[in-house]
Amino acid sequence: MRVKFDRDTCVGMFQCVAEWDAFEKDLNDGKADLRGSEEEEEDVFVVDVPDDEEFDAKFAARVCPVDAIEVYDDDGEQVV
Known about the structure:
2 helices; 6 strands; transport
């Protein structure tokens, strides 16, 4: 499973931070950061999700009010 996070779209509600500890607050920018991620393109970050954190990653994507988080299965299909 893989997560894609569009930091430019993020509005800093930090609901993802409460749901998955891979996200953390960046109060200087007023946006979330995705720890351990790589920048795929400008302000778009991706990270592989450990098997035991898949539920949390999906929930973080579901609670994002601006859909800045997408979750993809191992076949590349978007699941959230």
